[in-house]
Amino acid sequence: MAVAIQRIVIGLVRNSQDQYLISLRRGEQHLAGKWEFPGGKAEAGEDELSALARELEEEVGLELTGAELMERKVFEFDDRTLALHFYRVTGYRGQPRAREGQPLKWASVEELRALPFPKANDSVIAAL
Ligand SMILES: Nc1nc2c([nH]c(=O)n2[C@H]2C[C@H](O)[C@@H](COP(=O)(O)OP(=O)(O)OP(=O)(O)O)O2)c(=O)[nH]1
Ligand SMILES: [Mg+2]
């Protein structure tokens, strides 16, 4: 039987200084030690924009008001295959806060290029 590939939604949130919101994956998480843009797994039957809005609220306390799809890719990690949906967040309300206790910061494109991110992020970061 075919197994559905896990859908992941990811938000690139940019501030007025052209910095992007990132957090550190930790502990037992897949890809611990890598930085990431906020996001996570879409639930069964949940559309991707709803999932993105939910993840941004849960992880960083932002209310999503607009987003555009940047890139969609299926990526095979050593141990799993994910369908990643990268969105450029075009509107949001609120100030970001680390609602899950994760290290959270704003980083310039130059800093993003120097920090460790999952391999799946390479093309999106290159496009910024
Ligand atoms: N959030 C996020 N995940 C990424 C990025 N790049 C990348 O390969 N991933 C991978 C890591 C994870 O395997 C998956 C995201 O799932 P997640 O672990 O954040 O899931 P979740 O927020 O729903 O958390 P959980 O409830 O399962 O703990 O996508 C990225 O930039 N941001
Ligand atoms: Mg997550």
Automatic annotation (TrEMBL):
- What are the record keywords, sorted? DNA damage, DNA repair, DNA replication, Hydrolase, Magnesium, Metal-binding, Mutator protein
Q: Give the source's domain of life in one word.
A: Bacteria
What are the required cofactors? Mg(2+)
- Transmembrane as a keyword of this entry, yes or no, is no
Q: Which GO terms describe its biological process?
A: DNA repair; DNA replication
Q: Which residues are involved in binding Mg(2+)?
A: G39, E59
Any idea what this protein is called? 8-oxo-dGTP diphosphatase
Q: What class of enzyme is it?
A: hydrolase
InterPro entries associated with the record: Mutator_MutT, MutT-like, MutY_C, Nudix_hydrolase, NUDIX_hydrolase-like_dom_sf, NUDIX_hydrolase_CS, NUDIX_hydrolase_dom
The species this protein belongs to is Ferrimonas sediminicola
